[in-house]
Amino acid sequence: MKRLLMLLFVVTQSATVLAMDSYTIDSRHTFPGFEIDHLGFSTQRGRFNSTRGNLKMDPEKGKGSLQVEVDAASISTGLEELEAHLRGEDFFDVQQYPKIVYQSTKLVFEKEKLVEVQGLLTMRGQTHRVDLKVDHFYCGRHFKTLKYVCGANASGALKRSDFGVDKYTPFLADKVKIVIQVEAIKD
User: Fold this and answer.
1) Which of 26, 84, 155, 170 counts the highest number of beta carbons within 10 A?
2) pLDDT category of residue 9 using cuts at 50, 70 and 90
3) Average pLDDT of 95-109?
4) Considering the domain boundaries, does residue 170 fall inside one?
5) For the residues 3-12, what does the mean pLDDT come to?
6) Pairing state of beta strands 42-48 and 75-76?
7) How far is the C-alpha of 124 from the C-alpha of 183, rounded, in Å?
């Protein structure tokens, strides 16, 4: 009986060590954004105000996964007329494609620091690889909530025409820079 209890203890401890930590995206502190050259005059910026998702990771083993779902209708540019146009068929077509989804294929760590997320972005029914470079990554206990939180800043780029969003090309740039600040709370 003593051996059985010892074996159960070792197995449960091993399973705990092998399990990845799970985090839920904090939608109050996560805003995928974009930058696009506007007719050569300026850089137009915007963001999405509604996101959800989860992160699983084991930095010591250099493994993990990230899944983020963005409400395409939550686009915000500071210009209501532009936002209405971007929600329409010429751009995000939110009636037919209400969600933009990013699913990682690999998290890349240097030592225990996340430095890149490789993944697939699905927008307007099209899925293409989009990799994100992480220039800031930090995990720690939040001073106010006392919950364990991880945060990151990441950036990448895509060609909007790959996703069927080619209205006004080449006058409106095809290349779009993606910038994301994300925070996730440990479950």
Assistant:
1) 26
2) very low
3) 97
4) yes
5) 42
6) antiparallel
7) 26
Residue 4, domain member (yes or no): no
12: in domain: no
160: how many CB neighbours lie within 10 A of its CB?
Answer: 20
pTM (two decimals): 0.87
**Residue range 148-159, pLDDT digits in tens:** 999 999 999 999
Residue 5 lies in a domain: no
Residue that wins the pLDDT comparison between 11 and 134: 134
Cross-strand pairs, 82: none
Number of domains in the chain: 1
Q: Give percent helix, percent strand, percent coil of the chain, each to the nearest 5.
A: 15, 55, 30
What phi-psi label fits residue 37: left (phi over 0), alpha (psi between -120 and 50 degrees) or beta?
beta
Question: Please, which pLDDT band fits residue 179 given cuts at 50, 70 and 90?
Answer: very high
We report the CATH number of the domain holding residue 46 as 2.40.128.110
115 vs 154: CA distance, rounded Å: 9
CA atoms of 158 and 161, how far apart (whole Å): 9
Nearest Cα neighbor of 66 from 29, 106, 111 is 106
Q: Which domain holds residue 104?
A: 20-186
- Inter-CA distances, 150 with 25, 140, 181, Å: 9, 6, 11
The Cα-based distances of 149 to 9, 84, 144, 167, 185 in angstroms read 29, 35, 11, 40, 5
